[in-house]
Each structure stands twice: as C-alpha cells, then as structure tokens.
Amino acid sequence: MQLNSQTYRLSDTGKVGTMALAVGVIGIVGCAAGFYVDRTHFFHAYLVAFVFWVTLGLGGLFFTMLHHLVGADWSVVVRRISECLMITLPLMAILFIPIALGMHELYHWSHAGVADHDVLLKAKAPWLNTGWFFIRAGIYFSIWSVLAWMLYNASIKQDLSYDESRAQTMQRISAPGMLVFALSITFASYDWLMSLDPHWYSTIFGVYVFAGSFLAVLSFLAVIALSLRTQGVLADTIRLGHYADLGKLIFGFTVFWAYIAFSQYFLIWYGNIPEETIWYQHRWDGSWKYVSLFLAAGHFLVPFVVLITREAKRNLFVLRAAAIWVLFMHWIDLYWLVLPNMPHAEGAAGVHFSWIDAAAMLAVGGVFFWFFWQRFTANAIVPVSDPRLEVSIRYTNA
Amino acid sequence: MKTSATPGGTAATLADKNGNARTWHEPEIITGNQTFASITEKIASINEGKTPTGWYIAFGVAAFFAVALFAQIGWLFWKGIGIWGLNQTIFWAWDITNFVFWVGIGHAGTLISAVLFLFRQKWRTSINRFAEAMTIFAVICALLFPTIHVGRIWVIYWILPFPNSMEMWPNFRSPLLWDVFAVTTYFTVSLMFWFVGLVPDLATLRDRAVPGSLRQKVLALFSLGWRGGNKQWKHYEKAYLLLAGISTPLVLSVHTIVSMDFATSIIPGWHTTIFPPYFVAGAIFSGFAMVMTLGLVARKVYGLENFLTMNHLENMNKIILVTGTMVGYAYGCEFFIAWYSGNEYERFAFINRAFGPYWWAYWSMISCNVISPQLFWSKRIRTSIPAMFVISIFVNIGMWFERFVITVTSLSRDYLPSAWKYFSPSIFDIGMFIGSFGLFFTLFLLFIRHLPMIAISEVKGVLPQADPHWYHQDDHGANGHSVNGGNGHGTHKNGNGQKEEELAVKNGNGNGH
Fold first, then answer.
1. How many domains does chain B have?
2. Does position B221 have pLDDT exceeding 80, yes or no?
3. Which chain B residues have a beta carbon less than 8 Å from that of A7?
4. Which domain covers residue A141, as residue numbers?
5. Is the pLDDT of residue A397 over 50?
C-alpha cells in the first residue's frame, strides 16, 4: 500500500476492495442458502447485520457533524474515514430492500387483520402500518443521504483549494443536521427494532441505539486507522495523541452506553409492570439469560476495565484489541435486541446462533466495506486543505 | 512555513500551492493584552478594595429574605408541613419542585469544572470559579427542602444508616435514601474541587494582604502553605485532574438519582425510561442559564469584559441551545411514546398535562424551555446581551415549571377521579421559595466579596504567554508552537521538533492537485 505524498491518495492497495466484494458475494450466496433453509432466521439475521452496518454509517455522520460543530482540532486527521463511512448511507437504502421483503417474517404487526383481535395494535395502527412504515424509511434515508452527500461533497471540494469558508459551510450544514439526525435515528430505531415487539415501548430506546452506534464508530475509526498504520500509512499523521483521544472517547462512551442501558433496565425492573418486563423476560428465557449476562459483562465491564488506565489507551495493541472487541459486542447487542423476538416453537426458547447470522454479516459487511474502500481510495485520505490540519497533525496530547 | 507573530490567540500558517501564506486563527480567550500582573491586579482588587454601597444594599435585601426563610422554617417545625398547600392527593409539590430546581442549577458548575476540563475547553477558566461556587450554594438550598419536608425534624438522623439500639435501618430500596447519598457525595466532592482550585489564588491574596493582618492570617491558614513551587504545582495538577475524573460521573449520577425519585414509581408521567438522561440534560440547561444570569451581572458591575468575552457568552448560549433542544427532544419522546403505547393511562397523563387544569404551567414550560432557547440559532440574538439575559431568566422560569408540571400534574389526577384535587400554594410555599433565593444570593454575595470570582491562576494558564515556547518565537520561527496549549495550566510538552518539521514539510508539499 502506497501513500502518494503529493496528493495524499492511496495507491497500490492490493486487492482490499476486490476481497471485500468477494466476501460480500460469498455472504450473499450464504444468505440465499439461508433464505431457503430457514427463512425466518434469515430475515432476523439480516436485520441484525443491516442495522450493524447502518449504525456505523450513522455513527460516521454523527462524528463528522460533531467534529464540525465543536470546531475540533485533533480529529481532522481521522475525519476522512468517518466521512467515507457516512457516504455509505445512500447505499444502505438499497440494502434495506430485503427488510421490506421480509416485513411479514419480521414484524408481527404487519400481518393483515392482526389488529382486529388486539386492542393495542388497533390503537397503534395509525403508526404501525406497512405503507407509513415504508414512507418513514424513505424519509430517514433521504435525510441521511442528503446530509451525508452535502457534507462529503463540501469536504472533497475543500481539498481542491484552501478556502476557510468551506469549514463554515460544513458547520452550517451540521447544526440543523444534528437536529434531524437525532429525530431520524430515534424513529428509525423505534420502527426497525422496537416494533419487533409491537406491544412494548421505552422512551429511552432511541438514545440506547444512538449510544451503541457512536461507540461502534469510534472503535471502527480506531481499527481502520491502526490497520493503515501497520501498512505504514499515515503513521506520522495519526499519532499517539490521536489514538489516546479515541481511546478516551471509547472508554467514555462505553460508560455512557452502560448508563443508558442500565437506566432502561433498572426503571423497568423497579416498576415491575408486566407489559414492560416481558421484554426483558424474553431475554432471560432459556439460554438467552447467558447472552444477557454476557452483554452486561462484555459491552461494559471488559472495555471499562481494559481501557481505564492511561497506559492501555496509549498501547496501540491493547487499543486495537479493545476496539475490535467493542465492535463484536455491538453485534451481540443488536443480536440481543432482535433475535429474542423471533417466533420460535413452544419450549424452544433460547439463543440459537446459526451460520446464517455469519452469512448475513458477511453479505452486508462485504458490500459496505467495498463501497467504503472505494470512496476512501478515490480521494485524499486526510482533508489536505483543512485549515486546522496542521494543528491536528501537531497534536501531541501530552 | 512561518508562524505569524500575533500577540495572543493561536495561529498556524501554511503556505498554499502558490506559496501564499494562509493563516488559521483561533480567537483570543482573554482579551485586552493582559499580562500575568494585570490579571492578578484586576481580580484580586475586587476583593481588596472598599466594599461598594451597592453590595450592601443587595446583601441587605438577600439577607432579609434568607432570615425570613429561617423564620418560616421555624414556624413549619412548630406547626408541621400542613402550612404548605399540600393535601391528601398532592403530598409533594413546591418542596420537591424547589429541591429538583436547585440541584439542577448546581450541575453547570460541575460540568464546567470537570467535563469541560477533560474536554480541554480552555475558555472554561473564566467561568469555572463562580460556577462552582454557585453549585455549592445551590446544593445547600436544595438540601434544605427535603430536610424540612420530613416533618419530624428531630429524628432527621434516621435517614443515615448507622448501627443503633433500635436495630432500625433506612429503606435502602427507596430512591429518597439514594438521594441522601447522591447529594451529600455531590456536595462533598464539589466543595473539595472548589477548594483545591482556590488554594493558589488564596495564596496570591495572602501575599498581597497587609502583613500581620487578620485577613492575611486567615488566608494563610486556608492556602495551606502554598508557595507556588514546581513540586506543588505538579501535585496540584494531578489532584485537579483526579478530582475532575471523580466529578464527571457525578454530573450524571446526581440528577439520575433525582429522576428516579419519580421514575421508579409506576405513576403515568413519572414512570418513563428516558428520565435519567433527560433530567441530566435539563439540569445542565438550567445551570448554564443561571451561570449566564449571574455572569452577566458580575461582568457589568465589576467590568470583567476582558475575561467574560462575547466568545464565552456565545459558547454558553450554544450549550443552552443544545441542552434546551435535548430537553425538547425528551418532551417530544414522552408525548409520542405515550400515544404510541396505546395505554389509556399514559395517554391521559400527557393530554391532561397539556390541556388539563395545569395547561398554563405546561405551556409556560414549553415556551420557556423549548421555544425561547431556539432563538439562539440566530447569531445576532446569541451575541446580544439584553437578549441572552432575558432568555437565561426565561430558562430558569421554565425549568422550575418543568419540575412543577411533572410533580403536580401526575399526582393531582390519579386513578381514582373522586380523589382528584387541584393544588394551590399557600403563602409559605411562596415565601420559602423566595427565601431560598435570599439564601442563595446571600451566600453568593459573600463569595463575590471575599474570594476571587475568577480563577486567577487558571486564567493565566490560558494566556499565550503561558506556553513554554511563547518567548522563543523570534528565535526559531519555523515551529509554530503556539498552536498547542496544555489543559489550561500552561504545562505543555512538545513532541520532537525535528519530526514536526518533517511533517510540516510533507504537508506543505502535499497540497498540489
């Protein structure tokens, strides 16, 4: 892998893109097989994989907008990575199609006539109906695509010439962008995840999904940057200080995620109202109990203990391992949100991991990464004309 | 590559592809070409000069209401809490509202002193001292209300868990007990943080005081033998960082526990999972509004325009806008989910809030908390002092109403319509609320008079002169070192200068397209 010191573009990247696409194709073949073997499981596995990658795109969008809004110096050097993550969002709109096709398998409320026998579903019918569900998904993807596209374009244009006003332009987009982002990620999480159990509701649910998504993108940024570093790319641009800051943010948002997750669990447990506790009961049935315990330990305790010291955040090996672990736990988290709602035979409650889960992750992930890599190698891999770039490179974080 | 030699501010210069210089400027944090000496002189002289007449007048008014508060508390102990407007349905009203209101006010201080410190927001140095003081005084006012609410004040010590001959323990499952721990911890840590930050400044005042005077002796006692030595600063900065780390979870935990006073119950309108982060956002929102109100007055009266610049005010207004929008998001989420739940009690609770007998309180809350901060989208309003003063007061009014709306609307109409009641405050509800402001301002005025209201040593740390390389600018212009300050304490290690130059050269060449 070569970095052109004139244009700051990657060349000679070997077959990273091709390999990603190959993985995607293998995944798609696996998904096709899964579809015939166990249709219900396939759609649930696909939903997990879809949400996993879409939350990385959304996390990238949030990271970029936050960077512009607070006028951060240090994060200029990793900004292009997060921008290339967010520009996958229009692609994710296409990858939403299988979910639309699997509506019937995934969402009990979409069955015709189901509201006639269910007083709650009847009350919710103005919101939970297939047509309006699709329109909403269209609105979310339009918002995300427009925001991502505007910010990405402005950033690429910024590379061409030094112009301070471009930084302001991106800041101007980000302020209202943040507002519609917050609303759209909230309602998307209600629609795609919370309505899997259409009777259940929790006001914090949107914040929960957001917390997981931001934590995941911070980890993804660290993993990508560290992987480039092993190839000698940007090794003296993204420096120890930047990694230490990413480590601090991963640590901080691990705690934030745990805080939100605990708030939701604790208030429902304490209130002890059956219509609310049933959701956690589903996640305690059979072997799900162990997944729940593993989630609490793995998504909170492990990264908390590992990353608490200053030395750990500055040890790139530890940081990389922790970041990969957090990404894995993000997948477990989403799996834990989705799969317990999958209809199952009487007495067969419990977690049943399947090769279909892996196939779905590879399918969406391969296509996602291929597209990400394609965007990443198409331009300079740092915003070369950003007015704060030099400050960012110098950043030592002593 | 050259460093522009601007006095103050940070600047980095790069050459573009045509070799023209390009400069990125960060605005100066402290304006007016201050020196270390001029800062000490300005801040310390506020405490050393003659007490202004205006101060006596303000103190007299505040102290009057504070004394009136204690007189009313005496009457409350004598008669019982029936002197408030409470009734069988609404057993909690202004007392808990005032408690949550004052605890919330305190949160900005902790956010500014701890969270903004960890995020290296150097502008915080101008506001952290008086915001922390505000935190401590607000928590004192807050603690007062649940204490006097207990009724049998003579057994107040029963809230503390200690082995006793009655073998009686408080109810550990009650969020009200968690409040005792959360708020006292908060108070202790805030006080410690505030005091540690004060030590170097107290030593400055000590050294300036008349030798042998009582004032000097008192200051000497509290400055703990501070000499400003290298070792002392090293320990000080470590302690400061650790305290910031300890305080940061407290920003979240205190109001989380307070929200659980409501949310652990199963009363519609109280039992909702978003309460913890929503209360925290609301607390920071109201706290910043109070910092703004107090800051604007202090800025005007003591001429602190160079320390509390328009930039500071604008930053605070942005935080008010963000947190106000978060609060609006939570209101929206609650309302939407109440409808989405399909649960008729949930739905009723929210319809009743907006259109029931307390509609006026609900819409006051919405207009003050959600609508008024949205005006800060406009830069003109964000930088207009009269506008921000008015909005900050609106926010405080709105946040008081928020707690009132949550507490009273849900209680006043419960599951049994025959028990529905309307709450009317008695003269003592109103008198004690005003009295708590009297107490707060009494303490705050004493603070302003006797302690440096701006952290002298920290403000010096964010001056460009505090950068170890600032004096060398003329010697080796090739390194624009002033771009990277420390954490506001002026300690800053630079990386390998050689390597930086290489990087910069690479970067300078890397712009051709």
1. 1
2. yes
3. 510, 512-513
4. 11-394
5. yes
